[in-house]
Specification:
414 residues, Beta-lactamase, Peptidoglycan synthesis regulatory factor (PBP3), Domain 2, five-stranded antiparallel beta sheet, 11 helices, 24% strand, elongated
Length: 414
Amino acid sequence: MTGRARLAFLIVLLLAWGAKLTPATAATAPDRGPELDAKAWIVIDARTGEPLAGHAVNRHLGMASTTKMMTAYLAVRNLPFRQKVVAGRYDPDPAESLMGLEPGQRVSVRDLLYGLILLSGNDAAVTLAKAVSGTEKRFVRLMNRTARRLGLNDTHYDNPVGLDGPSHYTSAADLAKLGRIVMDMPRFRKIAGSRQARLTSYRPPLTIETTDSFMRDNAWARGIKTGHTLGTGYTLASDGRRKATELIGAVIGTPTEQARNDETVRLLDWGFDQYTKRVPVKVDKPVALVPVRYEDEDLPVRSKRRVRIGVRKGESLEVVTDLPGEVEGPILAGAKVGTATVTLNGIPFAKVPLFAARTIEKPSLIDRMLGNPLWIAVLLALVLFAILAVLLVVRRRRERNARKRLQRVLRKRQ
């Protein structure tokens, strides 16, 4: 085989090998999105749960204190906020995050949840776990049953705190999914979005501030939970709202807290750039015009609150109104007339009542008569009848007068 033949043969082999590898490479390549150094990451639309971009989204990794999202989820669902719980003894390892509970201290579930999320208190996590299930071990079993029920198929818990364990892991996709679930709980959302809180079951009451630097540094951030262990690195489940859009992100395994925050901001910035804020329903602009019976001018109907929504390229935004085909007075300004539903891709997003923008007076008898085709026909018939009657009277009078003249002429001739 000549040198040229060998070269051609090698090129053919390389092309064939590349063709075989291309599908597998494409399948494992990162999705579109920003360039991040985290071990795994994802950003999803909080409204729909749709993933926008991600990398290694199903890879099993340690979750550190983002574990406390599940601990909080179960506590919120199972314990009254006003219930007082007695804290037990907790022996932390060095550098653990603590709320600072004293053995025998009585603390409300509400305050424990604030300590759990804002301070990432491991002692709060264990106290809540025992309040829900009696023992930490039973609570961990409940955590894993709940994970399966919620469809978190790449998640398993060894403890309610977030310490590294042989089978304590999650994935970026599961972490974002759980974030969406807990942020859909109004009581948890309020806690996760707080920069500070007043613990009212303490004597005297104690004010605490969040240790989440991502929350402190970004006014648009709404949560959710930080995490860090030596084995996992720095982790953050995040929530932010801008451009009438709410996004949830998960970044797992960065080397520093600053890198975690920077990559989260870059991730969510990229996500928000995919949206345009739209205001399909405004307060100062009529949503629709409704015909008014017996009037030539239509009735404008307005909403008392605006509807804002983030829309991505290619999505279909529509306002569907439920209004009568025609209205009749009396209608006072501000009276409810119907509703408007904003839909995105055919799915309802918001429904608002619509109110009359002006007063419609009760129609008069003449308005009703003029506005009724039957009455108009009757009036026309009456007018026609009157005209015919007048013409008939005039004709008869003329005929009578003509006869009288004729009679006078005949008398004179006689």
